[in-house]
Specification:
The chain is built from two helices and no strands. The protein is an all-alpha fold and 59 residues long.
Length: 59
């Protein structure tokens, strides 16, 4: 669920900024999809790094 919410939030912010700067519908949709996926990837990397860090601290 956190991944989905992160995608909606980061993509939504990018879409709003695109709308405010006068972007077209296609550009706004592209920003929403692109930055939504980048937000999910960043969250996934943070989770993986945290799990690796916790595993090295335990051993």
């Amino acid at each position: 669920m956190a991944y989905l919410l992160t995608a909606i939030m980061t993509g939504g912010v990018a879409a709003v900024i695109s709308l405010l700067t006068g972007g077209s519908f296609g550009e706004t949709l592209w920003n929403y999809v692109l930055f939504g996926h980048l937000g999910m990837a960043a969250l996934a990397c943070a989770v993986i790094c945290n799990q690796l860090r916790n595993r090295t601290l335990e051993s």
